[in-house]
Structures
1.
Amino acid sequence: MVSPMVEAARDRLVGTWELVEYSITSDAGRVHRPLGPNTTGLIMYTADGHMSAQLMNPDRAPFAGPDVHAGTSDELAAAAGGYLAYSGRYRLEDDGLTVHHLVAASLFPNWVGTDRVRRIRLRTERNLALGAEPFRRNGVVWDPAVVWRRAAAH
């Protein structure tokens, strides 16, 4: 049986959200935007427990040709370097404040089969912040933050 807190959290989470900000902040307070200052994207949660997240640098250079599978090594590397995408199932913890993204497909192969834990902070019905565990890179601790706004219905 699903707890009332989980049901309420799922009801607030289900839908499509547009990216507002994707950043990481160092333990010294330095803010870095891994996909650039104009990162765009969507995250979607379905009522039946699936999710998909897509984030990209909109300023990526187009390929020279029209075939999606015929890019040069440099074109493919640049396109992938400016994109973050994964999808799978999701599950909420009993407190309704933590969501687990159970990754089935990902541009980053290391994430396939993993559980990406996100702390939920619903600021309002239209704003969602997802936090992940801080990580260490080159001796610096970074704290990631992703902020979303509920997409308008068309």
2.
Amino acid sequence: MNLAWEYIGCFIMLGAAFVTDIKSMKIPNWITISGLVTGIVAHLLQNGWSGGWFSLQGAGAGFGLMLLMYWCGAVGGGDVKLFAGIGAWTGTLLTLQILFYSVMAAGLIGLVVLLFRREMFSRIRALLARIFSALMLRSIAPLRIAGKSQLRIPFMLAVLPGAILTAALY
């Protein structure tokens, strides 16, 4: 399957999401929902029902995995819907690759920010204390990251490089 048109559609959506996420730390529904719908329609028109199924599987994979991250407090709702749109354009395999590289990039960005702010060791101590509490209480409640102490960066700072790396490697 020729992926050039799929990447073009996906990167248009990602470009709009990048701009809004950097400005406001939010990705509006008009970007995510239109990306999801146009991805599905493009695949339906290009490859019929098999293309639509390919697109729906990718959307489900992206949405489902990001929903788990949302429940853990790691990402926002716009990121969840964005990955449904990414999946609609690129299918399951490339969505998983984009997600993998995005999470790795987010981790690196987070480490750089923590080193720059000189907060690395205090945050590691706090994380180890939450892990210990979770083990002692046999509950995941202590692992939920408190909103005020959580390091927040626009996830698109990691998603766009993750998507570019996936496109370059594919």
